[in-house]
Each structure stands twice: as structure tokens, then as C-alpha cells.
UniProtKB/TrEMBL annotation:
Any one GO biological process: positive regulation of cellular response to amino acid starvation
Key word Kinase present: no
CDD domains reported for this sequence: DRG
Full protein name: Rbg2 protein
Keywords attached to this entry: GTP-binding, Nucleotide-binding
Sequence ranges assigned to domain TGS in this UniProt record: 292-367
Function per UniProt: Involved in ribosomal function.
UniProt GO MF annotations: GTP binding; GTPase activity
NCBIfam families registered for this protein in UniProt: small_GTP
Amino acid sequence: MGIIDKIQAIEAEMARTQKNKATEHHLGLLKGKLARYRQQLLEEAASSSGGGGSGFEVAKSGDARAVLIGYPSVGKSSLLGKITTTKSEVAHYSFTTLTSVPGVLKHEGAEIQIVDLPGIIYGASQGKGRGRQVVATARTADLVIMVLDATKSQHQRESLEAELEAVGIRLNCSPPNIHYRKRETGGVKVTFTAPPQGSLTEEAVKLLLKDYKVHNADVLVRDANASIDDFIDVINADHRNYIKCLYVYNKIDAVSLEEVDKLARQPNTVVVSCEMGLGMDDVVEQIWYQLNLSRVYTKKRGIKPTFDDPLVVRSGSSIGDLCHSVHRDFKDKFKYALVWGSSAKHSPQKCGLSHVIDDEDVVTLFTK
Ligand SMILES: Nc1nc2c(ncn2[C@@H]2O[C@H](COP(=O)(O)OP(=O)(O)OP(=O)(O)O)[C@@H](O)[C@H]2O)c(=O)[nH]1
């Protein structure tokens, strides 16, 4: 039996099994197996597709990367054309985006690479077509921009979400608050910081680990509401990516105002019309906001800072991270930094590598 058959058999069994307290552990085990087989399938696909000329890979460049995901003809190329400096040809028929055209969005001094993924992410979890390579690229994203057609049903969104979910991409959520460490000896030790309220119980943890052939491990569950799915994600943490997602509903020119209003009220959502140029500023603002980047202006000693060419780092970065973004070895030469701006207690403040900088701080770096 091939992996795809095994996956289908498990999916069929899950569909047949009634969901209730008595079947919870059995279903949990099936989900654990499913996660394992799906992983095998992706790995198998990755190793067999190497070397071919039709591979899909885009070099990462700029300060951050966002990927566009959506069904064919929802307007991904049109959106890319509107917000980036790359011109992409839009033909008036389906399946136009055969290879990826990365565009660059320049905003607030940052360069954000936007990659239009071929519209074939669906089916990827079943090992179909180039979807797998598309998934591999999606994993490297700092932000997923899911482009949806406002004139179509919510099914498009649900099915894309399910596809991403199946390949281990988690949208707009944080990793489960569960500590898990494999050990050499000592058996499986499970500790809950509060009595479990969710589907994850000590018995469920032990059953799953047994199925994964893990006989010695420490598990500390810090979230009383943790589910079996959460723990499966923790066991498979190497293959899970937690990525922000912005939902962009295009073609609002073709639906009613009430419909637009309803869509716009959903969280992490912008509504646009690429054809009429509506909502383009909102999309750019939201992309910038969701990427959570900070601009830092560097200043040479005795000279006023220039505010046109910031260094762009992730919010919450330290002076050490900033040094790294200047040059890999810069940290070794670093002596101290002077910082002006909201992160400084007084201006300027003399700081070391661990000082956390704020958006729009001005920094002078001193070397040995
Ligand atoms: N009504 C309307 N049509 C639009 C809008 N934006 C794009 N379209 C049309 O939708 C069709 C598809 O647009 P594309 O930008 O090629 O879509 P795509 O998602 O890149 O398509 P693929 O390359 O097939 O993946 C074209 O015929 C566009 O003219 C819009 O805002 N409103």
C-alpha cells in the first residue's frame, strides 16, 4: 500500500468514526498517523523532484518575504502589478501564472519581496503536481497573502486553509504552549500545570508517543485547553510553520455593498478591486503592519542622520540583530551603540548588544 493509499484509508476511517468521548483517543491516534504519513509524502516528493528543470524556487531577497496564494484568475497577477515594481503580464484567461514572478514592494524604506505562487497549492497535501514545491516556498514566507475572489463562495478560502493546514502551515496562531523533550531513559513523564480541560490528557500523550515510537520524553503542558491536535503539532514541530495571513478579497466592484461590508469586517482582511484601483493603499499598509517591521536610522558620529534609507529589522530586534543585518561579522567588532528614540531611557543612551530597539530609533554604532 502506497503512502497516498494509507492517507486515504485513514481519512476514510476518520470520516466513518463518530466523534465522541469514547472515540477521542482513537481519532487522536489516527490524526497522529495522518500527520506522519503526510510528512513522509512531502519528503518523498521533495527528494524525487530534485534536479529537474521545472523546479520552483525563488531566491529570497529584501527585508521580508510575502507570498500570494489563491485560485487561478482571482487577480494575483493584477495585485502584484499594482503594488510592486515588477510588471507582470495579465492575460484574460485562466492559468496564466506558470512560473513565479517575484515583485518588490517598496514601502517606508523597506523592500518586501512578494512572490506570486503558481495557483496550484490545492492538492499539494495529496502529493499532487508542483503543489509541493509551492508549499516549500510558502514555508519560507513571513506573510501569506491569500487572494480571494469576492464574487465566489467562502469555499475557496476554506479549501486553501485546509490545504495549508494539511501540510503543516498554521495561519495567524502561535505554537502550542507545550514543552516537549525526548530523553534517552526514564520513560514518558507528563506534567500539566493545571488540570486538563481540552482533549489532551496524560493517556492521550502516552498513546501518541507510543505510536511515534518515543518511549522516553518529558512533556509539560502549560495550556489547560490544549488539544490532541496541538500535541501532534508539537511532536512534528520541525515541519510546522506559524505564519501570519492577510486575506485580500479582490473584485469588490462586482459584488453588492452589503457583501463588501460583510467581508471587510472579518479579521485580518482587506477588500480591494485591482481593476478599479480600490483599496491598494490599505493592502500595502496591512502588509507592512502584519510583517511587524521596524525602521532604524543609522547616524555617523557628528553628522545628522539621514531619514531616507533605514535599516529594516523585525520588531523586537536588538542592537545585536541590527549588527547582524549590517554584516555577519559586525558583532565581533562592536564596542557600544548610542541610541536616540523611544527605546532610549535618555537621549542618547549608551547601549550594548542586548538593547531592544523601537521603530524609528536612530543608532550610532561604535566599533573597537
Ligand atoms: N471585476 C474585476 N475583475 C478583475 C479584478 N482584478 C482582476 N480581474 C480580472 O480577473 C482575471 C484574472 O486576473 P489575474 O490577475 O490574471 O489573476 P491571477 O490570479 O493572477 O490568475 P492566474 O495567473 O491564472 O493564477 C482577469 O481577467 C482580470 O481582468 C477586479 O478587481 N475586478
